[in-house]
Amino acid sequence: MPSLEEARRLILERAHTLGNESVELIDSMGLVTAKEIAAPWQMPMCDNSAMDGFAVRRADCQDQARLRITGFIPAGSLEEVQLDPGCAVKVMTGARIPAGCDAVVPYEHTEGRDEFVTIKAPVREHQHIRFAGSDLRCGEIVLPAGTVIRAPEISMMASFSMSHVTVFRRPRVAILSTGDELVELGEPVVPGRIADSNGVALAAMVKSSGAVVELLGIARDTHASHVAKMSLGLQADIFITSAGVSVGDRDLVREVLTEMGMEQVFYSIEARPGGPTTFGVKGDRLIFCLPGNPVASMIVFDELVKPAILKAMGYKRILPPVIRAVLQEDVAKKPGLAKFLRVRLEPGGERFLAYSSGAQTTGMLKTLARADGIAVLPSERSSYSAGDEVDVHLISDHVLRLEA
Ligand code: AMP
Ligand code: MG
C-alpha cells in the first residue's frame, strides 16, 4: 500500500503530454504552449507618443516657449509628418511621432490648442516617447514552450495579431459511475436509492482543470454493464470510475478492468478518506478507480488525479496550492495513515487559522462543502494539537482574497 507521496510518484511517472493541437486564443486560457513563440516584429513597431500632447524639439522648449502648431496626428494615422524647428505637432496617445521630434509634452503642461502652444514646464529629452523595440526586440522569445497561458499571455499573442496558439493537447477524460443504487440526475430518488452526484461533480472538476470531459453515465452492478461502459472509458486518455472498488460482493470494477487489460499499479493508499483508490494503466492510458463515497472521491481527485491531468496538459507546477495554517483544535488520527482533514480557514494575523469544518466522518458531505481546504496530516503522527502548523491544500483560491 503506497503512501500518498509514493502513490503520486507512481502516477506521475506514467503521466505524459499527448501531442499538440492548435486552439483559438479565446479557448487557450489555462492551457500550456507547446512551441516557443518569438516576436515576429519589434514592439512597439515604431516610436510613438505615450501621452496626448505635443511633439516638440526639446531645444525649442526653453521656459514659456511659444511654438506654432503645424499639424495633428491622431492614433492610427499613417501620414508621414515632419516637425520643423520652432514648431509643435499635436499627437494623441499611440500616434507615430513625427520625424525630428525628441520629446512629447503632455497637454497638462501646455496652454493653447489652436494656432500656438505655450510650454509651461521643463522638458526632458525623450520624455513620453515609447521607442520602437523598447518592450520587445524582433525575434525575442516572448513565451517559451511550457508557458501556462493566462490573460497576459493571451494579450501578448494577440498583440502580434495571432488568432491561434499551439498547445499541448487537452486530455480526454472519461467518467463512469457504478452501482445499482444510482439514479440519473433529474429522476425521482426513493429511499434506498441515491442520485449519481459523483459523475457530475468529478466532471466539473475535470472540466475546470482544462481537460475534455466525456460523461459515460452509470454502469450497473453486472459484468455485462461494466464491460459495455468500460470499453468506452478505455478509449479515453484518462478513465475515472467511482465506487465498486472495495471488497463488497458486487464490487466489480477492478475485476472487470483487469479482464479488459488494465495493469494494476496499486489498489489502495495509506490515507483516509480515500483509502480504497486503485490506479492502473492500459498502454499509455491512465485508469483511476475512485471510492464511491463523494467526499473521498473528490479529495482523491484533487490529490492524485488532477496532478496527473495537469502533467498531461504540460504543467510543471502540478500539486495542489498549499498554505501553512495553525490548527485550532486537537485532532486524533491513526498512525500509519495520512489524514485529510476538512478545514475552514480564517486570516489570523501572520498565519491562517485552520478550524475543522464539521464532523469528519467520510459520509458527511456538508463538511466538505463548508471547507476552504484539506489539511494533509502526514501518516507518522498519531495526534495533532491546537497550535500545530499544518499544510492546507486549497479547494479554491477564494480564501486568499479574504484579506483583500
Ligand atoms: P462503494 O464504493 O460502492 O461501496 O460506495 C460507497 C458509498 O458511495 C456508498 O454509500 C454509495 O452509495 C456511494 N456512492 C457510490 N457511487 C456514488 C455516486 N455516483 N454518487 C454518489 N454517491 C455514490
Ligand atoms: Mg457499490
Question: What does this 3D model show about the protein?
Answer:
There is one protein chain. The chain is an alpha/beta fold. The chain folds into four domains: 4-17 and 170-312, MoaB/Mog-like domain (Molybdenum Cofactor Biosythetic Enzyme, Chain A), CATH 3.40.980.10; 20-43 and 135-168, Molybdopterin biosynthesis moea protein, domain 2; 48-130, Molybdopterin biosynthesis moea protein, domain 3 (Molybdopterin biosynthesis moeA protein, domain 3, Beta Complex), CATH 2.170.190; 322-401, Beta Barrel (Beta-clip), CATH 2.40.340.10. Helix content is 18%, strand content 31%. It has helices at 4-12, 151-159, 197-208, 223-233, 253-259, 294-312, 365-369; strands at residues 20-24, 37-38, 48-49, 53-56, 66-73, 87-91, 103-106, 110-111, 116-119, 129-130, 141-143, 164-168, 172-178, 182-183, 194-195, 212-219, 238-242, 263-266, 271-272, 278-282, 285-290, 322-327, 331-332, 338-348, 351-356, 373-377, 383-384, 389-394. The strands form eight sheets. It has a six-stranded mixed β-sheet, with no helix packed on it. The longest helix is centred in the C-terminal third of the chain and has 19 residues, at 294-312. It is elongated and about 95 Å long. Bound molecules: adenosine monophosphate and magnesium ion (MG). Magnesium ion is lined by residues 179, 243-244, 248, 250, 292.
